[in-house]
Design brief:
Elements: E1 35-40, H1 45-48, E2 64-70, E3 80-83, E4 87-91, E5 96-100, E6 105-115, E7 120-127
Antiparallel strand pairs: 1-2, 2-7, 3-4, 4-5, 6-7
Length: 137
């Protein structure tokens, strides 16, 4: 097995390094907040009653990823959020969350809202999937 590299002194290829690893900082003393990942699916009557589109309840048929992050004692203005194709990077003065997402997302079409009474940041991201017999829109 021969690895071809542009630079002979490199010890790994760029394909071997996971996307988002440049954000990892294990020496950062900030706390990792609690979070919950759920999936959202857009269904209509043709899905629920007739089963015409072939969708099922699995994550393979979901269009959106919803991430709810608990940020106690945090103001909206203190939140820094960066979304890449496979990585969510959240930073506040007290918290830091680097989350590798289960599916690639369209980072340009996401939405985030801060529910100040519950102290929760809700991030909704559109999943980028190749078109197939289930995901055709």
């Amino acid at each position: 097995f021969q690895v071809k590299s542009e630079n002979k002194k490199t010890i790994w290829n760029t394909e071997e390094v996971p996307e988002g690893s440049e954000f990892d900082d294990m020496w950062d003393p900030r706390e990792k907040p609690e979070y919950e990942i759920s999936f959202k699916q857009h269904v209509g009557t043709e899905d629920v009653f007739f089963g015409m589109t072939g969708k099922d309840p699995s994550t393979a048929c979901c269009e959106d990823i919803v991430i709810k992050i608990k940020l106690p004692e945090t103001k909206y203005s203190d939140i820094t959020l960066d979304i890449q194709d496979k990585v969510l990077d959240l930073r506040t003065p007290k918290n830091k969350l680097l989350l590798h997402l289960p599916y690639p997302v369209n980072s340009k079409e996401g939405r985030a809202r801060f529910l100040s009474e519950e102290e929760i940041l809700e991030v909704t991201l559109r999943v980028s999937r190749k078109l197939d017999f289930i995901n055709f829109s």
